[in-house]
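Support request from a user on the community tier.

User writes: "When I paste my C-alpha cells into the form, the page sometimes reloads and wipes my input. The last time it worked, I copied everything first. Here is what I submitted, just in case something in the input itself triggers the reload:"
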C-alpha cells in the first residue's frame, strides 16, 4: 500500500459553499441539530486509522454512537449533496482552556495527550496498573510555566485579576502607517504602544472585565498579585457572542482575542524554549497535515498536526455560556487548561494560530490572520 497522501504533504482547501450551508442547516440548525454534533470542518477522509488524502467534510461529535443505536434522523450521511464524503470524528467536550479553579496539587495533573503528543501511543502497550503507577510517580506531570518573569517571554502564565490563569501568547503593536490587511503589508515607523496578546477569556474574563483593569503575571491562580505582579492593563478585546443570550445560529465569532498594554521592557515575543515568530501565515495557506507547535503555561512545549480547517465549532465557556466559532483550525491535542492564549506556529516559527479551546482529543485555534486584522496589530513583520 502506498503511503497516504496526508503523510506525504499537507492538504489545502476549504469547504465548498454548498457543503458549508448544508452542514450548518442539517447538523447545527436550531430545528435540525443532530445528537452529539458540535461542529464541522474541512479535512481528509480517514480509513482504518490512516488519512487517505481525499477531501472530506469532518463532522465533530462529542462521542461516536453505533449507527444501529441512532434514530434515522440523527445518522450522518456518508456524503454531502455535492458528493463530498463525510467523516465523523469524536472530539469530546470542547471548552475554553483557562486554568480551572481546583484545590490541592491535582490541578497540575489534569493534562491529556493525543496521538501526536506521542504519550498515548508510546505507552499504549503498558498495563493499566503500570500506567497508574507511572502517573503516581509524576511521569505525566509537565513542568508548568508559572514563575514571575521580567521581561516575560511568551508562553508563561498570565491573566486578568478576575480570572485564574492563561498564557501570554506574544507581544504585538498597532499597525504602523502604510500597513494593510488585504493584501497584507507591514507599515513603517516607530510603534507607539506595545501589547501582550492572549484570549478574551484570559485577559478580559469573557467580555466581563473593564478596560484598564489589571493583568498580572503570573496569573492569580499561580500566585500573582496586584499591584506587585501587574504586567499590563486591559486595552481592548473582540467581544464574544454567547448563547443563550444570542442564539447560536446568529453567532459570528471568529476570534477569542484581547490585548493588554505593556511597557516595552516588561515582555518579549521571544517564545520560551521555542524562539520568536519569524513570520505569520495567511489562512489560505494553512493546510490539513501541517505540523505545529506551541509553548503554553500548562503543557509547556507540545507538537501536533492540523486535522481540520474552515471549521465551525461550539465551545463551552462555563458560566459565560456557549459560543459558536467559525473559520477555525483544529489540531491534534496539544493543550490543557491554562494553555489558552498560546501562539501556535509551524515547526520553523511561522505564526498561524491563537490557541483558545480544546478537549482531551483536539485543540482549537483562531487563524492569526483574523486576529491580526480584527485587533489591527502586527505579530511579525514578515509574511510566509
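"...and here is what came back when it finally went through:"
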Amino acid at each position: 500500500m502506498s503511503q497516504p497522501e496526508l503523510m506525504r504533504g499537507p492538504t489545502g482547501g476549504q469547504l465548498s459553499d454548498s457543503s458549508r450551508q448544508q452542514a450548518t442547516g442539517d447538523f447545527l440548525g436550531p430545528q435540525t441539530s443532530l445528537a452529539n454534533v458540535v461542529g464541522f470542518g474541512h479535512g481528509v477522509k480517514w480509513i482504518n486509522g490512516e488519512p487517505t488524502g481525499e477531501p472530506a467534510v469532518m463532522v465533530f461529535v462529542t462521542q461516536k454512537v453505533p449507527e444501529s443505536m441512532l434514530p434515522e434522523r440523527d445518522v450522518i450521511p456518508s456524503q454531502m449533496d455535492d458528493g463530498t464524503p463525510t467523516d465523523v470524528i469524536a472530539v469530546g467536550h470542547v471548552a475554553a482552556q483557562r486554568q480551572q479553579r481546583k484545590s490541592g496539587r491535582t490541578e497540575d495533573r489534569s493534562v491529556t495527550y493525543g496521538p501526536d503528543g506521542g504519550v498515548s501511543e508510546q505507552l499504549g502497550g503498558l498495563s493499566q496498573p503500570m500506567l497508574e503507577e507511572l502517573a503516581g510517580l509524576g511521569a505525566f506531570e509537565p513542568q508548568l510555566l508559572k514563575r514571575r518573569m521580567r521581561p516575560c517571554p511568551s508562553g508563561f502564565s498570565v491573566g486578568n485579576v478576575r480570572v485564574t490563569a492563561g498564557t501570554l501568547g506574544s507581544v504585538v503593536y498597532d499597525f504602523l502607517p502604510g500597513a494593510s490587511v488585504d493584501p497584507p503589508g507591514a507599515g513603517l515607523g516607530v510603534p507607539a504602544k506595545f501589547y501582550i496578546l492572549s484570549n478574551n477569556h484570559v485577559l478580559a474574563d469573557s467580555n466581563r472585565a473593564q478596560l484598564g483593569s489589571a493583568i498580572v503575571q503570573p496569573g492569580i491562580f499561580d500566585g500573582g498579585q496586584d499591584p506587585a505582579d501587574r504586567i499590563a492593563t486591559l486595552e481592548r478585546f473582540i467581544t464574544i457572542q454567547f448563547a443563550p443570550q444570542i442564539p447560536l445560529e446568529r453567532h459570528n465569532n471568529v476570534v477569542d482575542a484581547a490585548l493588554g498594554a505593556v511597557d516595552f521592557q516588561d515582555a518579549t515575543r521571544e517564545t520560551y524554549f521555542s524562539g520568536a515568530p519569524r513570520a505569520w501565515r495567511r489562512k489560505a495557506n494553512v493546510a490539513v497535515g501541517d505540523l505545529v507547535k506551541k509553548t503554553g503555561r500548562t503543557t509547556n512545549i507540545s507538537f501536533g498536526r492540523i486535522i481540520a480547517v474552515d471549521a465551525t465549532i461550539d465551545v463551552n465557556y462555563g458560566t459565560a455560556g456557549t459560543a459558536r466559532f467559525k473559520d477555525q483550525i483544529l489540531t491534534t491535542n496539544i493543550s490543557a487548561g491554562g494553555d489558552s492564549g498560546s501562539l501556535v506556529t509551524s515547526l520553523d516559527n511561522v505564526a498561524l494560530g491563537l490557541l483558545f479551546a480544546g478537549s482531551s482529543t483536539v485543540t482549537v485555534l483562531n487563524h492569526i490572520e483574523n486576529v491580526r486584522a480584527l485587533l489591527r496589530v502586527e505579530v511579525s513583520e514578515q509574511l510566509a
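Agent notes: The reload is a front-end session timeout and is unrelated to the input. The chain has six helices and 23 strands. The radius of gyration is 20 Å. Escalated to web team.
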